[in-house]
C-alpha cells in the first residue's frame, strides 16, 4: 500500500533530487523522471522550484544553481543539500528486516547479502537498532540441497519430476512440473510451476517434496500460465469448489483460525464456519480429528461418511 | 500542502543547513521568504513548519540560549542530516532490489519506497533482478501490525482486547519488546503488566483497536532479549520423548512414515511403523484423522485415547 502523494512527499522528493543529479554529474530528464516516478513536466516544475529557492539574509542569494538544457540536468551549485537525508527508522528497518529474511532463505548464506546488510547498518546508524526487534522467520523443513537443485532447474530451464506429499489426502503423488519461480510466502518456501498432470499453475511446498529429479526435457510453460498473485493469499476458492458448513465446539475453534473460512458465525459457545474446498477428503480427515468437537452440517451425507469411517476404524480395534 | 508552503519549507531546510550558528526565529523570518508580517501569525506558522520537518525525519536542533524562549536558536547539523557515504557492488544492488520487493503491498512498503528514494539520491540503483532466484514476501493482513510496529519503534506500552480460540476475551496491557513472523503469522512478545509476566500474543487474535497507554520511550527491553526465542518458546511443541508403535495400511499414512523412526512390513497389507510423540491428546486426534488406515498397537494410553476419539465422532 503506497500513501497518496502529499506535500511532504514532494518535499522529500525535492531534497532527494539535487543529490540524485549531483551523484551522477549529468543525467537526462527522462531517466530522472522514471527514477522518481513522475512525469517530465512534474520534474521540470520540481527543478524550477529548486532553482528559485532564495534566501534574503544577510544578503539575498540563490543557493541552488542548475540547468536542464537539451534534456540533460546538471547541478552547478548544490549548497547544503548535496547529500540525501538520512534513512528514517521505518525506512532502515523495512530494508534490514527484509534482508535478514532473505539471509534465512538463501542456501549458503550469500556473501552479497551479509555485505549489503553490513553496509546498510553502517549507513543507517542509530536508525538500524530497532530493526532487530522485528523478525521474519522462514521454516527450512526441506531436504538439504533441494533449494539449490530447484534453482538449478530454473536457471537451466529444465522440467522436473516431483514426488509430492498431499497431506489432505494422505497421498504421495507423482507429477512432471515446468518450474516458473521460487516463492517464500507465509514463512514457507514454494516452487511455482505448470503442473503437467493438473494442466494448471500449482504451488508446491518444498518441505512436502518427497523426491525431485531434473529431467532432460526443457520446461515448457504455456503462455496462458498466470503466476499466482500471492498477495491475495495462497488459497483461492474456485466456483467448482464444494461449500462445507461445520459446527465447532470451543475445542474445535482453532479450525476457524487455521483455515481460510468464508463465514464465521457465533452460536452461543459454538462457531459455525463455512469454507470451500475442491476435495472433501481432507474435510473427512478433519472431522475425524475433531471428534466430538466438530459436526458436519453440509454437504448432506458428509456427516454419515465420517461416521462410517470412524466405525470402520473402531472395528479394527475390536478384533 | 500548498505550493507556497513546499517552497517555504524547502527554503527553511536550505537556510538551517547552511548556517554555522543557530538562528533565532526573528533571523529565520528575515532570511526565509513566505512568512506573514504579523509576528504572532509567523510564530504559529513556524511552529507548524518545525513539526512538519521533524515528521520528515529532519533533525532540527533547538538551542535554548537563555531562559527566554524568544532567544532560542535553530539549526540543522549537517552530520545529523546527511546520509553517510554508501556504495554497493552490482551483486549487492541486486540483493537490495530483491529485499525491496519483500514488503510489496504490505505495511512497510511505503517506508521501502522512501528508503530507495534516498539511496538512489546517494547514487545507488537497486537493480530489478530477473535472474531465477527466490521471491520472498511478507504479508501484514493483521490490522494490529501497524500500531504494534509503532509501539515497538517508539518504545510505548499498549492496550488491546485479546481472544484465544475457545476462550473468552480479555483486556491486556503490554510493554512490547518485538514483533515476530512465524509460519506466516505475526506475534508480539513483551511484558504483560496485568499478568506481571512475559507473554506472547498472536496478532490475528487481537480484537479492535490497539491503543498506546504510555509516552514514547517508556518501555525498556531487557538486555539480551531475543524476541524470536521468546516467541519460539511459547509456540513450539514440547520434545517428543515417547514412542508409539502403529500398524499402517500399505500405501497409506505418508504423513506418519515421513517422520518415522522405524518402518517394517507387518502382516499382509500392513506395515509396522514407529514414531515419536509428546502429547497423547494431540497425537491421538492426529492419528484418528487417518481413520481405518492406522491402528495403534502401543502404548495402551494412546490406543485408548484414539478409541475414545473415534467414539466421539459417533457420539
Amino-to-carboxy terminus distance of chain B = 67 Å
Estimated structural class of chain B: alpha+beta
- Radius of gyration of chain A equals 29 Å
Relative strand content of chain A: 25-35%
How helix-rich are the residues of chain A, as a percent range?
Answer: 25-40%
**Can you give the mean pLDDT of chain A?**
87
In short:
Chain A is an alpha+beta fold and 319 residues long. Chain A is 35% helix and 28% strand. Chain A has nine helices and 13 strands.
State the main characteristics.
A: 319 residues; alpha+beta; five-stranded antiparallel β-sheet; four-stranded antiparallel β-sheet; 13 strands; 35% helix; disordered N terminus; B: 315 residues; elongated
Q: Can you give a write-up of this model?
A:
The complex is a heterodimer of chains A (319) and B (315). Chain A contains nine helices and 13 strands. Chain A is of the alpha+beta class and 319 residues long. In chain A, strands 8-7-6-5-9 form a five-stranded antiparallel beta sheet, covered by helices on one side. A four-stranded antiparallel beta sheet of chain A has the order 11-12-10-13, covered by helices on one side. In chain A, strands 1-3-2 form a three-stranded antiparallel beta sheet. In chain A, β6 (171-185) and β7 (188-195) form a beta hairpin. By secondary structure, chain B is of the alpha+beta class. Chain B has eleven helices and 13 strands. Chain B has helices spanning 3-18, 25-31, 39-55, 78-81, 90-100, 109-121, 145-154, 227-235, 254-258, 280-288, 300-314, and strands at residues 23-24, 60-63, 73-76, 134-136, 158-162, 170-182, 185-192, 197-202, 206-212, 242-249, 262-265, 270-277, 294-298. A five-stranded antiparallel beta sheet of chain B has the order 8-7-6-5-9. In chain B, strands 11-12-10-13 form a four-stranded antiparallel beta sheet, with helices on one face. In chain B, a hairpin with a 4-residue loop joins β11 (262-265) and β12. β4 (134-136) of chain A pairs parallel with β6 (170-182) of chain B, so a sheet runs across the interface.
Amino acid at each position: 500500500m503506497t500513501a497518496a502523494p502529499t506535500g511532504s512527499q514532494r518535499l522529500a522528493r525535492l531534497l532527494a533530487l539535487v543529490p540524485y543529479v549531483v551523484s551522477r554529474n549529468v543525467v537526462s530528464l527522462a531517466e530522472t523522471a522514471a527514477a522518481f516516478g513522475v512525469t517530465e513536466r512534474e520534474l521540470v516544475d520540481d527543478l524550477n522550484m529548486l532553482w528559485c529557492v532564495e534566501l534574503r539574509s544577510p544578503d539575498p542569494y540563490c543557493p541552488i544553481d542548475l540547468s536542464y538544457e537539451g534534456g540533460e540536468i546538471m547541478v552547478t551549485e548544490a549548497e547544503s543539500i548535496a547529500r540525501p537525508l538520512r534513512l528514517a527508522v521505518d525506512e532502515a528497518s523495512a530494508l534490514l528486516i527484509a534482508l535478514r529474511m532473505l539471509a534465512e532463505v538463501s542456501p549458503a548464506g550469500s556473501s552479497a547479502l551479509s555485505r549489503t546488510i553490513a553496509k546498510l547498518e553502517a549507513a543507517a546508524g542509530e536508525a538500524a537498532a530497532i530493526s532487530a526487534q522485528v523478525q521474519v522467520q522462514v521454516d527450512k523443513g526441506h531436504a538439504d540441497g533441494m533449494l539449490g537443485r530447484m534453482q538449478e532447474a530454473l536457471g537451466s530451464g529444465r522440467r522436473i519430476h516431483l514426488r509430492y506429499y498431499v497431506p489432505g489426502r494422505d497421498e504421495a503423488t507423482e507429477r512432471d512440473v515446468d518450474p516458473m519461480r521460487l516463492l517464500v510466502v507465509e514463512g514457507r518456501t514454494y516452487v511455482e510451476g505448470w503442473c503437467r498432470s493438473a494442466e494448471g499453475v500449482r504451488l508446491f511446498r518444498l518441505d512436502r517434496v518427497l523426491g525431485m529429479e531434473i529431467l532432460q526435457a526443457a520446461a515448457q510453460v504455456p503462455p496462458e500460465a498466470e503466476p499466482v498473485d500471492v498477495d491475495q493469499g495462497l488459497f483461492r476458492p474456485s466456483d467448482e469448489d464444494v461449500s462445507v458448513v461445520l459446527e465447532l465446539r470451543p475445542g474445535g475453534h482453532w479450525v476457524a483460525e487455521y483455515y481460510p473460512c468464508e463465514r464465521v458465525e457465533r452460536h452461543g459457545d459454538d462457531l459455525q464456519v463455512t469454507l470451500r474446498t475442491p476435495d472433501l477428503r481432507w474435510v473427512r480427515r478433519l472431522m475425524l480429528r475433531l471428534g466430538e468437537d466438530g459436526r458436519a452440517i453440509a454437504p448432506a451425507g458428509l456427516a454419515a461418511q465420517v461416521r462410517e469411517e470412524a466405525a470402520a476404524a473402531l472395528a479394527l480395534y475390536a478384533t | 500542502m500548498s505550493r507556497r508552503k513546499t517552497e517555504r519549507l524547502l527554503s527553511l531546510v536550505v537556510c538551517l543547513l547552511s548556517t554555522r550558528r543557530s538562528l533565532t526565529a526573528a533571523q529565520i523570518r528575515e532570511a526565509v521568504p513566505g512568512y506573514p508580517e504579523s509576528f504572532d501569525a509567523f510564530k504559529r506558522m513556524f511552529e507548524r513548519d518545525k513539526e512538519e520537518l521533524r515528521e520528515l525525519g529532519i533533525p532540527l536542533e533547538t538551542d535554548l540560549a537563555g531562559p527566554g524562549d524568544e532567544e532560542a536558536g535553530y539549526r540543522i547539523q549537517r552530520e545529523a542530516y546527511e546520509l553517510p557515504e554508501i556504495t554497493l557492488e552490482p551483486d549487492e544492488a541486486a540483493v537490495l532490489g530483491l529485499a525491496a520487493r519483500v514488503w510489496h503491498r504490505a505495511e512497510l512498503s511505503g517506508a521501502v519506497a522512501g528508503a530507495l528514494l534516498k539511496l538512489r539520491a546517494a547514487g545507488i540503483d537497486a537493480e530489478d533482478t530477473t535472474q531465477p532466484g527466490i521471491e520472498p514476501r511478507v504479508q501484514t493482513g493483521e490490522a494490529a501490525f501497524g500500531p504494534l510496529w509503532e509501539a515497538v519503534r517508539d518504545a510505548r506500552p499498549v492496550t488491546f482486547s485479546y481472544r484465544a480460540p475457545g476462550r473468552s476475551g480479555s483486556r491486556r496491557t503490554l510493554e512490547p519488546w518485538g514483533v515476530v513472523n512465524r509460519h506466516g503469522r505475526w506475534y508480539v512478545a513483551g511484558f504483560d503488566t496485568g499478568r506481571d509476566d512475559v507473554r506472547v500474543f498472536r496478532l490475528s487474535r487481537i480484537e479492535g483497536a490497539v491503543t498506546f497507554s504510555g509516552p514514547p520511550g517508556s518501555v525498556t527491553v531487557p538486555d539480551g532479549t531475543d524476541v524470536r526465542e521468546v516467541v519460539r518458546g511459547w509456540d513450539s511443541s514440547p520434545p517428543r520423548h515417547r514412542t508409539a508403535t502403529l500398524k499402517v495400511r500399505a500405501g497409506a499414512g505418508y504423513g506418519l512414515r515421513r517422520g518415522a523412526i522405524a518402518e517394517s512390513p507387518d502382516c499382509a497389507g500392513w506395515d509396522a511403523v514407529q514414531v515419536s510423540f509428546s502429547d497423547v491428546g494431540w497425537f491421538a486426534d492426529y492419528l484418528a484423522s487417518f481413520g481405518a488406515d492406522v491402528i495403534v498397537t502401543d502404548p495402551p494410553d494412546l490406543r485408548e485415547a484414539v478409541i475414545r476419539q473415534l467414539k466421539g465422532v459417533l457420539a
